[in-house]
Specification:
- It contains 11 helices and 10 strands.
- It folds into 4 domains: 8-101, 2-Layer Sandwich (Phosphorylase Kinase, domain 1), CATH 3.30.200.20; 105-212, Transferase(Phosphotransferase) domain 1 (Transferase(Phosphotransferase), domain 1, Orthogonal Bundle); 244-333; 368-442, no CATH class.
- The chain has helices spanning 61-76, 108-114, 118-137, 186-189, 196-208, 214-223, 234-288, 296-367, 369-375, 383-404, 411-442; strands at residues 12-13, 16-17, 25-32, 36-43, 46-53, 85-91, 95-101, 105-107, 150-153, 158-160.
- By secondary structure, it is α+β, with helices and mostly antiparallel strands.
- The radius of gyration is 36 Å and the shape is flat.
Length: 443
C-alpha cells in the first residue's frame, strides 16, 4: 500500500483522525454578558458552542442552578428547530459549560434587516411556531422570544436558541420579571407567572416586523390582545393561520378551475354545433347522390360521441359546483370565526376606552380645576399660574395612558381609543379655557 497517499481531504492524516482528542482545543471566548459567557471550542474535528457563567457568579448557587436548569430544558427538548445540547462539562478557562451544537447562520434580526420575501417569511414563521408549539407541549415557556434569539441556518431553517430565561412549573426559583422589553408581554413585565401566552405575545411582535401574507395578519392582532383575549395556546394560532391560508387557496384554485371548465364546455358546444351543420350538409349531399361514399350512420355515431363528451363535461361541472359550495361553506366558517374575533377585539377596544375615560375623569377630579374656577370670585394669584399647570397634568396623564396602549393594541385600535378619549379631553380643555377668559376679563 502506498504510504504517500494524501488523505487530508477526509480529515485523516498519517492514518489518524485529526480530532481524536476528547478534550476541547482552540477554545476562545466569543461574547459575554452580565451573567453568561459564550465560548467556542473544537473537539473531534468539530466546533462546539460553550455556554458558562461569569467567573464572579460561578460560585453563586442561584446562577449555577440557572445554568443547570437551562441544560435540563435543552436536553429535554429534542427538535430540529431547537439548538441541541450534548453535555454539561468543566472546560479549562471557561469553567462549567453547557456544550451545544455550533449553528452556522445569521440571526433572524439580521435577516429581517437585509430584507426577505413574503414566502420566505411565512416559511420561517411556520418553522418557528412549530418549534414553540413543541416546547409548550413539554410545559416549557421560553420567555425571551425575539429575532436575535432565532438563528436562520445556512440551509435556510430556523433554530431557536438561548433558553436562559425559559421556565417550567418544576423550576420555581426564577419567577421574577425577565425578558426583553420590546418583545415582553405586559403581564410578564409585571412579574406574572410564566404562561404560554407570554410567548404568543412575543410571536405577535416578531410577526409585526415581517412581510407576512394576508393569512397571518388577522392572527397578529389576536396575539397582541390583553392576555384574556389572546390565543390560549400556540395550536390555536397555527390553526387560524392554516384556515385562512386554505381559504385563500380554495378561492383562487376554485375560480381558475371553474373558468377553465367553462372554456372547455363552450369549446365543446361550439364543436357540437359545427358537427350538426356538417351533418346537415352531408345529409343533403347524400339525398342528392346515392353514390356518396360517406355514411350518414358514421356521422350520427360521431354526434352521439360528442353528446357523451358534453354529458361528461356537464357532470364535471356539477362536481366542480359542489366543490365550490364546500369551499363557500369553509369561507362561511372562516367568516364566522373572524366575526367572533372582531367582536372579541372590539370588546377589548371598548374596555380600553372605558378605562381611558375613567382615567380622564379621575384626573379631572383630582386636579380640582373646575372647582377652583367655579368658586373664585376673581382671577387672582397663585391660581392664575396653578390652574394652567394642573390642566397640563391632566393632559399629560391621559396621553401617557394612550401611549401605554401601544404595547398591547394595534396602531388602528390605539387610534380608535385616542380619537374617542381626546374628543372628550378637548371639550374639557375648551371649557376650562373659556372659564379662565371670563375670570381674566373680570380681573
Amino acid at each position: 500500500m502506498n504510504s504517500d497517499v494524501d488523505t487530508s481531504a477526509s480529515g485523516i492524516e498519517d492514518g489518524r483522525f485529526e480530532g481524536v482528542s476528547p478534550v476541547f482545543t482552540e477554545v476562545h471566548l466569543i461574547s459575554e454578558g452580565d451573567i453568561n459567557i459564550l465560548g467556542k471550542g473544537k473537539r473531534y474535528g468539530r466546533w462546539w458552542l460553550l455556554k458558562g457563567l461569569q467567573p464572579d457568579l460561578s460560585e453563586l448557587t442561584q446562577y449555577v442552578e440557572m445554568l443547570h436548569k437551562e441544560f435540563e430544558l435543552l436536553m429535554k427538548a429534542q427538535h430540529p428547530g431547537i439548538v441541541q445540547a450534548t453535555g454539561l462539562e468543566e472546560v479549562p478557562g471557561l469553567g462549567e459549560c453547557i456544550v451545544m451544537e455550533y449553528v452556522e447562520g445569521t440571526t433572524l434580526k439580521e435577516v429581517m434587516e437585509q430584507g426577505l420575501s413574503s414566502r420566505t417569511a411565512a416559511r420561517l414563521m411556520d418553522e418557528l411556531t412549530d418549534a414553540v408549539a413543541y416546547i409548550h407541549s413539554l410545559g416549557i415557556v421560553h420567555r425571551d422570544l425575539k429575532p436575535s434569539n432565532i438563528i436562520v441556518t445556512q440551509g435556510g431553517h430556523v433554530k431557536l436558541i438561548d433558553f436562559g430565561l425559559a421556565d417550567t412549573r418544576a423550576h420555581a426559583f426564577l419567577k421574577q420579571s425577565a425578558g426583553t422589553e420590546r418583545y415582553m408581554s405586559p403581564e410578564q413585565a409585571a412579574g406574572g407567572k410564566p404562561d404560554a401566552r407570554n410567548d404568543i405575545y412575543s410571536l405577535g411582535v416578531i410577526m409585526q416586523g415581517m412581510p407576512l401574507p394576508w393569512s397571518y395578519r388577522r392572527s397578529i392582532a389576536r396575539c397582541l390582545c390583553p392576555i384574556e383575549g389572546r390565543w390560549a395556546g400556540i395550536e390555536e394560532l397555527k390553526e387560524s393561520i392554516a384556515l385562512r391560508r386554505l381559504l385563500m387557496r380554495r378561492t383562487v384554485y376554485g375560480a381558475v378551475a371553474l373558468a377553465l371548465l367553462a372554456v372547455a364546455v363552450v369549446a365543446t358546444m361550439l364543436q357540437h354545433r359545427a358537427s350538426v351543420r356538417e351533418f346537415d350538409e352531408w345529409k343533403t349531399l347524400y339525398a342528392d347522390s346515392e353514390a356518396q361514399s360517406v355514411s350518414a350512420d358514421s356521422l350520427a355515431a360521431e354526434l352521439r360521441a360528442r353528446d357523451a363528451e358534453i354529458a361528461v363535461l356537464h357532470s364535471n361541472m356539477q362536481h366542480m359546483e359542489q366543490a365550490l359550495q364546500r369551499s363557500n361553506d369553509s369561507m362561511k366558517n372562516v367568516m364566522t370565526t373572524t366575526v367572533k374575533e372582531e367582536v372579541s377585539l372590539n370588546n377589548h377596544v371598548k374596555r380600553a376606552i372605558e378605562l381611558g375615560m375613567n382615567r380622564l375623569n379621575e384626573a379631572i377630579d383630582e386636579s380640582g380645576v373646575e372647582m377652583i374656577l367655579d368658586t373664585l370670585s376673581r382671577w387672582q394669584e397663585p391660581w392664575s399660574r396653578e390652574v394652567p399647570r394642573r390642566i397640563v397634568r391632566v393632559n399629560t396623564d391621559v396621553n401617557n395612558y394612550i401611549a401605554g396602549l401601544n404595547n398591547t393594541y394595534t396602531q388602528r385600535e390605539v387610534q380608535t381609543v385616542r380619537d374617542t378619549i381626546m374628543s372628550s379631553l378637548t371639550k374639557w380643555n375648551d371649557r376650562m379655557s373659556r372659564k379662565m377668559k371670563v375670570l381674566a376679563k373680570k380681573e
